[in-house]
Design goal:
The protein is α+β, with helices and mostly antiparallel strands and 668 residues long. Among the domains are: 114-297, Lipocalin (Beta Barrel), CATH 2.40.128; 405-554 and 589-667, 3-Layer(aba) Sandwich (Rossmann fold). The protein is 19% helix and 37% strand. The strands form nine sheets. It has an eight-stranded mixed beta sheet with strand order 32-33-35-34-36-37-38-39, with helices on both faces. Strands 23, 24, 25, 26 and 27 form a five-stranded antiparallel beta sheet that branches. A four-stranded antiparallel beta sheet has the order 1-2-3-4, with no helix packed on it.
């Protein structure tokens, strides 16, 4: 078998956005691939019909779409050279093209004067649309061309300045977001008229159409974001807007419609803070009253880890007979149904993850994008009754057909009075009489989870002769609120779990050379890597990525810092700064002797660059062997969605660091 190589990532296909046609006879989805020459990604649409997959577009830039009818798509794309030049000059608009499934050139139908994120037809060519606005210039969409040009020029003239009077004023992957809002619009394609429904200050998080009413929710942000929802309704006939509920008790994850009634997945955070799993509630759009429908025992959505995904994924779907949703259960992401009686059923389970899905109730058909331990993403067809997925695409089959794919071996053990799930990947050409180096890989979050899912970096290291170890310490997702609740305990039970896991694996796998074990992780995993090297010398080297080192400064610079720090560390700067400092790896920098590589991006606003710089400087000043690699123009998603060549360089830097230090330890 051939090894999985670093550059194989350039050849993978990533599937997302699968959506049935109105008649349920076909579906369209997008496929993204790396474009090495331009150091970017291409995206095209594919059609699934009569059991076969066929490519629809070849312009390499189509990904977002909605169905217009059974044979036509509305595609949001920038095809015209003149439009591209307008966009380059700063004009804000979204071209909408009509694409016929059975051939013919795509034609431009409309142009919406803002950046579109979502679009649903209400009736007779009238659409509900969400898009971006500037609260300082909320009527740009309705202005004359002359006024728009003046507004665009002002933005261009002011590009060297950023005015900030809100928190957060920047956001990872979006840059500076001060006064930026997601607005709700009503668009009449028959007349071309566009009307903004939400107020300039209101940022819309989601909505549902109920007959002639649209219920939307979000936050009227005034200086500081609170992450609690206000519920509004808009009468599509009379144009009347009213506040349905404004007590800001709940944070809404998503919503759906079941049997014509509104269902909200939401949490008040009273027991487990910001990371509390949402429950399903009936929600009255007239009174704003909620009634519990179903209490979740695990989390909603897919939080299983992999570096082999790109694109938008659905987590919930409305239905007449049930709601369909993805939940993370232990170490897998499964598809479930919930009916009006509050009965939940798993319809697509097993190991791995449902990364995306759609359901056509009338026929009972389910299309899903799935990933498993030894397969990359593919499209699967199944039935709500039989529940046996059948693979109907082969985008990645050839890529892995002759590669060594290490299958995860389960390691269950007890630590901190909890049974912890862990896994081991054996190295290529494993010989039980030889000794091998190893890598402990720590996930982010902390409220995410590892599972039996293909992870490129892990497979690459296994193919280079490493054992790869990974586990789900306390704080991980998929096992309910209590297990995930690590507030005020960072660096305690989670650290104990990781060390106990490493020790257990070394006992069970004597072929691992204990002097050649490396450690790495990103985000929370980077935090734990920082913590580990300040508390033990058992690892021969470390690679800390997009990390946190100082909770005191993190609270003031991260896009989630103010809320996340106070919530997760159970302390505030003006309340208990000593507790924040106790949980900060920087406090223990004087104890670090482990050679440590730092990977960071200069546009990471989740775990900002200064977090890595502080720790790097502290241990470098003490003479510890270290190296820092800063990626320009990348953000917190470098390892998962960064530019292809940057992702290659990241892997090379980490792997070279491991190789050099494990080789050195072997000689010594």
């Amino acid at each position: 078998m051939l090894p999985v190589l670093q550059e194989d990532l350039l050849k993978y296909s990533f599937l997302s956005g699968v959506t049935f046609s109105p008649d349920g006879e076909k579906a369209v989805f997008s496929v993204k691939k790396a474009d090495e020459e331009n150091n970017s990604y291409i995206s095209n649409l594919y059609l699934f019909r009569d059991g076969e997959v066929k490519q629809l577009t070849a312009m390499n830039k189509e990904g977002s779409f909605v169905w217009k009818n059974d044979n036509e798509l509305l595609v949001f794309t920038m095809r015209d050279d003149k439009d591209k030049k307008r966009a380059e000059k700063g004009e804000r608009f979204t071209p909408v093209y009509r694409l016929y499934l059975d051939g013919g050139e795509a034609t431009k139908l409309w142009e919406l004067p803002f950046s579109v994120s979502d679009m649903k037809e209400w009736k007779d060519g009238s659409y509900i649309v969400t898009g971006s606005i500037d609260a300082n210039d909320p009527d740009y969409y309705a202005a004359s061309k002359e006024d728009r040009d003046a507004s665009d020029k002002k933005i261009k003239d002011d590009k060297d300045y950023a005015i900030c009077d809100e928190v957060p004023f920047w956001f990872n992957g979006a840059g500076f977001i001060n006064k930026q809002r997601s607005a709700l619009f009503l668009f009449d394609s028959n007349t071309g008229e566009t009307k903004r429904v939400s107020s300039p200050e209101f940022s819309v998080s989601g909505y549902q159409i109920l007959g002639d009413t649209v219920l939307y929710y979000g936050e009227k942000q005034e200086n500081i974001r609170e992450f609690k929802s206000t519920f509004m309704s808009y009468d599509l006939v009379s144009g009347e807007t009213k506040v349905v509920r404004d007590d800001k008790k709940y944070s809404v994850s998503c919503c759906a419609v079941l049997n014509g009634r509104l269902v909200m997945a939401m949490s008040d955070g009273e027991h487990y803070g910001l990371n509390e799993d949402p429950d399903f509630y009936w929600f009255d759009p007239e009174t704003g009253e909620e009634t519990l429908l179903y209490k979740m025992d695990v989390s909603l959505g897919n939080s299983t880890g992999s570096d082999c995904r790109l694109g938008h994924s659905r987590s919930i779907k409305s239905g007449k007979n049930a709601i369909y949703f993805v939940e993370t259960r232990r170490d897998s992401a499964v598809l479930c149904t919930l009916n009006a009686d509050g009965n939940r059923v798993t319809v697509l389970g097993g190991k791995g993850a449902v990364d995306d899905f759609d359901v056509f109730e009338e026929s009972g058909k389910v299309l899903s994008v799935r990933i498993t331990a030894d397969t990359l993403q593919e499209l699967y067809l199944s039935d709500l009754e039989e529940r046996v997925p059948r693979k109907v695409s082969s985008f990645n089959d050839e890529m892995l057909s002759d590669r060594y794919v290490a299958l995860p071996e389960k390691v269950n053990f007890k630590s901190s009075n909890e049974y912890i799930d862990g896994w081991v990947l054996r190295p290529i050409d494993f010989d039980p009489d030889k000794q091998y180096p190893a890598v402990l890989d720590i996930h982010g979050g902390p409220k995410t989870t590892y599972g039996e899912i293909f992870y490129h970096e892990m497979q690459m290291w296994a193919s280079r002769g490493y054992f790869v170890l990974f586990c789900n310490p306390i704080g991980s997702d998929g096992r309910g609120n209590e297990f995930a609740d690590i507030r005020g305990k960072y660096g305690t039970c989670d650290y104990e779990n990781l060390m106990d896991f490493t020790g257990e694996v070394l006992i069970r796998y004597p072929q691992i050379d204990s002097s050649r074990v490396c450690v790495t992780g990103g985000s929370y995993g980077g935090y734990m890597t920082n913590w580990i090297v300040g508390h033990t010398a058992r690892f021969c080297c470390a690679a800390t990525q997009r990390s946190i080192s100082n909770w005191v400064s993190f609270a003031g610079v991260s896009d989630i810092g103010q809320w996340f720090t106070w919530d997760q560390q159970a302390a505030t700067i003006d309340g208990d700064v000593e507790k924040l400092w106790w949980h900060s790896p920087l406090k223990y920098a004087s104890k670090v002797n482990t050679p440590t590589l730092f990977i960071h991006s200069d546009e990471d606003y989740r775990c900002p660059l200064e977090q890595g710089i502080q720790y790097f400087t502290a241990i470098r000043s003490r003479g510890v062997e270290t190296r820092m690699v800063i990626f320009h123009g990348e953000n917190h998603e470098l390892s998962r969605g960064g530019k292809p060549l940057h992702r290659m360089r990241r892997l090379k830097e980490i792997t070279d660091w491991f190789d050099s230090h494990t080789a050195k330890a072997e000689v010594e």
